[in-house]
Amino acid sequence: MEDCIFCKIIKGEIPAEKVYEDEEIIAFEDIHPAAPIHVLIIPKKHIATLMNIENEDTVLMGKIIQTTKKIAKQLGIEENGFRLIANCGPDSGQEVMHIHFHLLAGRKMGPKIVS
Ligand code: AMP
Ligand code: ZN
To answer: Residue 71: exposed, middle, or buried by beta-carbon count in 10 A (0-12, 13-18, 19+)?
Structure first.
């Protein structure tokens, strides 16, 4: 997708602080961190929102969760924990139309995930 900022990061056209990369998935630091650790985990395949996931993407989505575990260990947050969030659609405030999972850690999160 030509206009997609995350596709540009995947292609190396926009810089990002990468924390993980394999053939199908990339993770990089959020440019406006909401916690001491704020990483975005995304598939390299352009999928706009969670509502655009197809049956053929099931394995890829599972791999993203497995990769979250890998990254949590890599960042040393597997014991203290973290929050994983995916916004979808206008009411959620999703700004970038390329599926991404926010991995937030490094501080105590509030008891509610809504604001
Ligand atoms: P969302 O509101 O769920 O769509 O989140 C989009 C996230 O992408 C926000 O937390 C932004 O700070 C982050 N973001 C936007 N542009 C970049 C960029 N070039 N590099 C890293 N993070 C970005
Ligand atoms: Zn994209």
So the answer is: buried
Q: How far apart are the CA of 109 and the centre of ligand 2, in A?
A: 29
The whole-number pLDDT of residue 2 equals 77
Residues 97, 86 contacting (CB under 8 angstroms): no
Residues with CB under 6 A from ligand 1: 5, 14, 16, 30-32, 40, 87, 93-96
Q: Give the tokens for residue 114.
A: 């809504």
pTM (2 d.p.):
0.96
Within 41-105, where are the H helices? 58-75
Check the CA dihedral 29-34-47-58 and report its sign: positive
Residue 20 Cα, ligand 2 centroid: separation in angstroms? 17
